[in-house]
Amino acid sequence: MAKAQTEIVAPTTKSLHGRLKDIVNAEIARLPELLEQLEPKERVKTILALLPYTTPKMETVATDYGEPCSFGWD
Q1: d(CA 35, CA 47)
Q2: 66: in domain
Q3: 48 within some domain
Q4: Mean pLDDT over residues 19-26, rounded?
Q5: Per-residue pLDDT, 73
Q6: Which of 4, 12, 48, 51 sits a CA distance of 20 to 30 A from 28?
């Protein structure tokens, strides 16, 4: 009797993306509960580590950036 062969179906990028999105959303939903379980010092460290993913990075801009070189008051 021959063994039945099962067809292996490779997941599509779309299905993987959807599954990963579901996993990440579930973890984000649990984040407040997980943060509450941490000691205050660890909670602050974790929140600071997550900040770059949620807030834009600030850049230093020179005060004369984009300004004309001379105002012509002479």
Answers
A1: 9
A2: no
A3: yes
A4: 95
A5: 63
A6: 12
- Is the pLDDT reported for residue 18 higher than 60? yes
Q: Name all contacts of 32-38 with Cβ < 8 Å and 24+ positions apart.
A: none
Per the structure, the complete domain to which residue 34 belongs is given by 13-53
Residue type, 3: K
User: What pLDDT digit, counting tens, does each position of 33-73 carry?
Assistant: 999 999 999 999 999 999 998 888 888 877 766 666 665 66
Distance separating alpha carbons of residues 65 and 43, to the nearest angstrom: 39
- Phi, psi (deg, nearest 5) at residue 13: -60, -40
Number of structural domains (the chain) is: 1
Q: Which two tokens stand for residue 41?
A: 């010092």
